[in-house]
């Protein structure tokens, strides 16, 4: 099984040792430890806003990992979409639901031990599986595979239909979000404001002839 | 680079996300954990794309699509959260139980009382 999987990628057998890592691997490991630590703090901290800010660290570290894997464009999209909009949305959500600043003792529900058990079990199972399957696989990082030019070429030559379908999906989702979050008394709120603008104009108009 | 490094990192991130989804009580923190899980999948897709080097670059294209879907999901999710907060004055997952099975809950309650 593992030999078959290895043959699909690089054909070189396990000539590389884990004990003599390359520079890229060292950087990847260091950033990976940072990402994992930030993720763990983000799901365990009791301060809700701090959780969102640690999520920024984790997602930014993942963008660096994408850069190390030569996926340049994906890394910048990650920075723009996740760090730029998703985290801001999350912070606005925390603000609008009046999340308490500081420690909130109710951040975790009662089934925390069960969650810990499930998380540990899935981590142990998947790590065992992945290490056993891909122990001898080697990624050849020479040659850029994810520059913006290349990404544009394959995205708009092979993936046009899914791309357009996804843009329609995103539009539908955002229109749905607007419809859902529009408050019912928002319509009556908007009317006096428009009237105020209309009453403001005539009062400003008579001053003009006086100045002339 | 060994393929095992990104694969193991993605697996660990996914498990952290699973823990967060199950353990958190605030809906927005649950959504953040879902984002962590989606990002673990993204890392896997990018790593396997660089490893396999197929002509279509399916891994990176799917990563971009996943990021789009994640953005749509968080926008819609936060809209629903705000709607629930406006009607129920709560953002806790375990207090939104309007669709729960009342008979079962009543049975559990009776059992607990019988045990106590």
TrEMBL record, chain A:
Q: Where mainly found?
A: membrane
Q: Which GO terms describe its molecular function?
A: NADH dehydrogenase (ubiquinone) activity; quinone binding
Q: Which InterPro entries match?
A: NADH_UbQ/plastoQ_OxRdtase_su6 (IPR001457), Nuo/plastoQ_OxRdtase_6_NuoJ (IPR042106)
- Give the EC number(s) listed in the UniProt record: 7.1.1.-
- The molecule here is called NADH-quinone oxidoreductase subunit J
Question: Where are the stretches annotated Disordered?
Answer: 185-212
Question: Family, per the entry?
Answer: Belongs to the complex I subunit 6 family.
Keywords for the protein's UniProt record, in alphabetical order:
Cell membrane, Membrane, NAD, Quinone, Transmembrane, Transmembrane helix
Annotated membrane-spanning segments are: 26-44, 51-69, 75-96, 116-139, 159-181
Enzyme superclass (EC): translocase
From TrEMBL, chain B:
**One Gene Ontology molecular-function label:** NADH dehydrogenase (quinone) (non-electrogenic) activity
- Reaction it catalyzes: a quinone + NADH + 5 H(+)(in) = a quinol + NAD(+) + 4 H(+)(out)
Query: What GO CC terms are in its UniProt record?
Result: NADH dehydrogenase complex; plasma membrane
Q: What is its EC number?
A: 7.1.1.-
Which keywords does the record carry? Answer: Cell membrane, Membrane, NAD, Quinone, Translocase, Transmembrane, Transmembrane helix, Transport
Q: Gene3D superfamilies from the xrefs? A: 1.10.287.3510
The regions listed as transmembrane in this protein's record are 61-85
Sorted alphabetically, which InterPro entries does this protein's record hold?
NADH_UbQ_OxRdtase_chain4L/K, NUOK/Mnh_C1-like
Taxonomically, the superkingdom here is: Bacteria
One of its GO biological process terms is: ATP synthesis coupled electron transport
Per UniProt, subcellular location reads as: Cell membrane; Membrane
Is Signal given among the entry's keywords?
Answer: no
Task: Kindly report, in one word, the top-level EC class recorded for this enzyme.
Answer: translocase
Record keyword Nuclease present: no
Q: How does it assemble?
A: NDH-1 is composed of 14 different subunits. Subunits NuoA, H, J, K, L, M, N constitute the membrane sector of the complex.
HAMAP family, A to Z: NDH1_NuoK (MF_01456)
Q: Which PANTHER family match?
A: NADH-UBIQUINONE OXIDOREDUCTASE CHAIN 4L, NADH-UBIQUINONE OXIDOREDUCTASE SUBUNIT ND4L
- Please report which protein family the annotation says this sequence is part of: Belongs to the complex I subunit 4L family.
Main role? NDH-1 shuttles electrons from NADH, via FMN and iron-sulfur (Fe-S) centers, to quinones in the respiratory chain. The immediate electron acceptor for the enzyme in this species is believed to be a menaquinone. Couples the redox reaction to proton translocation (for every two electrons transferred, four hydrogen ions are translocated across the cytoplasmic membrane), and thus conserves the redox energy in a proton gradient.
Q: What is this protein called?
A: NADH-quinone oxidoreductase subunit K
Lineage of source species? Bacteria, Bacillati, Actinomycetota, Actinomycetes, Kitasatosporales
């Amino acid at each position: 099984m593992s030999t078959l999987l290895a043959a699909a990628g690089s054909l070189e057998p396990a000539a590389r040792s884990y004990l003599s890592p390359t520079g890229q691997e060292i950087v990847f490991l260091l950033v990976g430890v940072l990402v994992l630590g930030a993720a763990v703090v983000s799901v365990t901290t009791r301060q809700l806003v701090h959780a969102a800010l640690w999520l920024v660290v984790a997602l930014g570290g993942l963008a660096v990992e994408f850069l190390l894997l030569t996926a340049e464009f994906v890394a910048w999209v990650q920075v723009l979409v996740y760090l730029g909009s998703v985290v801001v949305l999350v912070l606005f959500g925390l603000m609008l639901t009046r999340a308490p600043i500081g420690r909130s003792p109710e951040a975790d529900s009662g089934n925390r031990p069960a969650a810990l058990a499930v998380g540990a079990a899935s981590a142990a199972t998947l790590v065992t599986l992945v290490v056993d399957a891909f122990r001898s696989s080697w990624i050849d990082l020479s040659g850029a595979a994810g520059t913006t030019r290349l990404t544009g070429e394959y995205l708009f030559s092979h993936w046009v239909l899914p791309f357009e379908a996804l843009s329609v999906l995103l539009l539908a989702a955002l229109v749905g979000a607007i419809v859902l979050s529009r408050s019912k008394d928002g319509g009556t709120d908007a009317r006096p404001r428009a009237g105020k603008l209309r009453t403001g104009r005539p009062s400003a108009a008579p001053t003009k002839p006086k100045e002339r | 680079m060994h393929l095992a490094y990104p694969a193991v990192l993605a697996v660990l991130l996914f498990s952290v996300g699973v823990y967060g989804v199950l353990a958190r009580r605030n809906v927005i923190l649950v959504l953040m954990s879902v984002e962590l899980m989606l990002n673990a999948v993204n890392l896997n897709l990018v790593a396997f794309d660089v490893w396999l080097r197929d002509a279509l670059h399916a891994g990176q294209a799917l990563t971009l699509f996943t990021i789009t879907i994640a953005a749509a999901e968080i926008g819609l999710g936060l809209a629903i959260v705000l709607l629930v907060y406006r009607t129920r004055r709560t953002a806790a997952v375990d207090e939104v139980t309007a669709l729960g099975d009342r008979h079962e809950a009543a049975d559990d309650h009776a059992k607990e009382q019988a045990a106590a």
